[in-house]
Amino acid sequence: MRIGVVCYPTFGGSGVVATEIGMALANKGYEVHFITYNLPVRLDLISSGIHFHQVQIEEYSLFHYQPYELALSSKMVQVAEKYNLELLHVHYAIPHAYAAYMAKQMLREKGIDIRVVTTLHGTDITLVGSHPNYKTAVEFSINHSDVVTTVSKSLRDDTYRLFDINREIEVVYNFIEIDKYAKHPMGGEDCERGSIATEDEFILTHISNYRPVKRAKDVIKIFAKVLEKKPAKLMLVGQGPDMVEVKQLARELGVYDKILFLGNSLEVNKILCYSDVFILPSKSESFGLAALEAMAARTPVISTNTGGLPEVNIHGVTGFLSDVKDVNDMAKNTLKLIETRDILEGYKQNAFERAKTFSIDQVLPQYEAIYKSLVVPA
Ligand code: GMT
């Protein structure tokens, strides 16, 4: 089958999920065409069956905003025509689902019938998509896709609640390639904790895009409270608008020197190998792919109980859930996890076992079944 994949080519979860699906499909013999404005950060172009088509924008001074949707839908039509694509799988509704609808109509005029699968990821529904400025077009594109999926039940319910949806939405959970993360319980050669922390220090980690929805300053507050009771280090991975305030708060609370700022990384699996506890205090989170990645690397999760997080992180088993903003509870729960090395080891094992249930081997066939229901082999 020949599939076009449209996504944001960034470190964000939706781009990562789209890239991993595309690469896994190519491994299974599908012809996969990524249509994006940059090479997706985790894309391994060396795999056979992977193609990349860059969407380019001609800047013109008349435009206050450059018309990306036009360039994207034009590219989708060109690629679909040239490579006989049968299906477009677009990740993140804005503006991908809308551009795909336009591409489908243009292709129809040429006598080409292409199917569109839209996967909703979170902020395209909860934060941005439901804003009155976008809602009409997002609702239209959801209702006019051939199949719509969400990455959690919570996001499906949010979509029905926030939009006037007249069709079925399927839940296909995010997934993990567990072998990329699996490590020996005590760490292996590649996992020399000693380069990061002393033997008695616990290592806490947070990975995000440091947008307000992540509440990254809560991570610093939790860390400061944990440090009152236990020796620890904090690894902060990623970059984003709140980082300046995060650093400022760390200085104010006197914990700056105990933090390693690692920026964006393509080696999240190696970084997580050092971690004892992953902290995700988000205000909203449709799934929490970063939490699943942590669990795959045997790292229990301290998170809020918002959105899809309870579908991933099981309270008292793989970590703990708290109300949004309740940093006292999250600090208390972190201390429960690291009370002793033995206790921590139990949670680590639970986190890993839970992550295995989100293995790509179980999730990819669900997407394949969707594709096959739409495209009848010639
Ligand atoms: O978390 C972000 O802000 C990035 C965003 C994205 O679209 O890349 O993440 C969303 O999609 C991820 C992959 O499906 C989910 O794991 C995240 O929970 C979701 N983020 C939010 O809902 C805030």
Automatic annotation (TrEMBL):
<feature type="domain" description="Glycosyl transferase family 1">
    <location>
        <begin position="198"/>
        <end position="353"/>
    </location>
</feature>
<dbReference type="InterPro" id="IPR001296">
    <property type="entry name" value="Glyco_trans_1"/>
</dbReference>
<protein>
    <submittedName>
        <fullName>N-acetyl-alpha-D-glucosaminyl L-malate synthase BshA</fullName>
    </submittedName>
</protein>
<dbReference type="Pfam" id="PF13439">
    <property type="entry name" value="Glyco_transf_4"/>
</dbReference>
<dbReference type="InterPro" id="IPR023881">
    <property type="entry name" value="Thiol_BshA"/>
</dbReference>
<feature type="domain" description="Glycosyltransferase subfamily 4-like N-terminal">
    <location>
        <begin position="11"/>
        <end position="179"/>
    </location>
</feature>
<dbReference type="InterPro" id="IPR028098">
    <property type="entry name" value="Glyco_trans_4-like_N"/>
</dbReference>
<dbReference type="Pfam" id="PF00534">
    <property type="entry name" value="Glycos_transf_1"/>
</dbReference>
